[in-house]
Each structure stands twice: as structure tokens, then as C-alpha cells.
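quick q for whoever's on today - can somebody do inverse folding on this one?? i tried earlier but teh output was garbage lol. C-alpha cells:
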């Protein structure tokens, strides 16, 4: 599936009109491992169908929001590559406090599941120059979120 603010589509109308690439099997496996570890039980039934990729340059931010364009309550698995960011993990009721600020560094993985699936969250700050160029990313931050859209 392809996400364009704020809906999923089968074709990338806003890019090239083409069908999006199949979800890579290795990435789905990684998602299952993440969910299994976070939940402490096997997650063989976790079948993400969409990976949303966000690139953040030094000034980029993401405001507080809920991930609620999916029809499925399945967990969202977030992977971070490149620059470290300040990640704000909030509550399910409001955009504001209480929230918890954590740093997400390259290689960190975060699972939004269960009661936190619909928690507000955002990225108030990127720490430029903190990434390891060995990732292949010379600058900035990439975030991938694996999602089960529940749309087919
Ligand atoms: O970049 C992040 O860590 C969060 C991304 C996010 O919240 C989203 O793509 O919905
Ligand atoms: Fe989000």
C-alpha cells in the first residue's frame, strides 16, 4: 500500500501512478521478530503490508499525532537509521502531557502495540551529525514504520 496524506492507496498517484513494490519478506520477518520480542510471545501472525519511510534532514520535525489511518489494531514497528532524534511518546488522550521523551538512535526499534498503539507521538528534534555514515546514510535520519493497513 502507498500512503499519501492521509490515506492509503494501491497506486502511488502522487509519485508515478504505479503500483507499489511488494513488501519485502525479510522486512516482514524483522517485524515479526520485533513484535515477538516486545510482546514476549511468537508473532507468526504479524503480516505488515506497508512500510512508511520518512526522511528527516537537520531541521525536520514531526508534530504530535496518532497513527490511525490503518483499519487494523496490529502493532506498528518503527526502525530508525542515521541521526539520533528526540522522540516524544505521549498518551492516547491528548497531544500534550503526559509524555515521555526518549532518544532514538540508529538501529533502535520501537513497537507501538496494545495500549500504546494509538498513543500520540512526534519527533521534536534531530541531532545532526550523530549518525554513522557506515549505514550508507551520510546525513539525516530515516524512519521506517511497518504497518498492517487492514486494507487490501
Ligand atoms: O520518525 C519517527 O520516529 C516517527 C514517525 C511517525 O510517527 C510516523 O511515520 O507516523
Ligand atoms: Fe506516527
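ok took a stab at it. sequence:
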Amino acid at each position: 500500500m502507498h500512503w499519501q496524506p492521509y490515506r492509503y492507496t494501491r497506486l502511488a498517484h502522487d509519485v508515478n501512478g504505479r503500483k507499489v513494490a511488494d513488501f519485502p519478506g525479510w522486512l516482514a520477518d524483522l517485524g515479526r521478530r520485533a513484535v515477538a520480542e516486545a510482546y514476549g510471545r511468537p508473532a507468526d501472525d504479524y503480516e505488515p503490508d506497508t512500510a512508511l519511510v520518512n526522511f528527516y534532514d537537520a531541521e525536520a520535525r514531526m508534530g504530535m499525532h496518532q497513527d490511525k489511518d490503518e483499519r487494523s489494531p496490529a502493532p506498528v514497528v518503527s526502525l530508525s537509521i542515521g541521526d539520533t532524534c528526540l522522540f516524544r511518546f505521549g498518551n492516547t488522550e491528548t497531544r500534550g502531557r503526559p509524555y515521555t521523551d526518549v532518544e532514538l538512535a540508529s538501529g533502535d526499534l520501537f513497537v507501538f502495540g496494545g495500549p500504546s498503539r494509538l498513543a500520540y507521538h512526534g519527533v521534536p528534534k534531530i541531532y545532526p551529525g550523530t549518525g554513522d555514515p557506515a549505514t550508507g546514510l551520510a546525513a539525516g535520519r530515516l524512519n521506517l514504520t511497518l504497518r498492517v493497513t487492514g486494507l487490501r
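fwiw The mean pLDDT is 96. also DSSP finds one helix and ten strands in the chain. so keep that in mind when u check it
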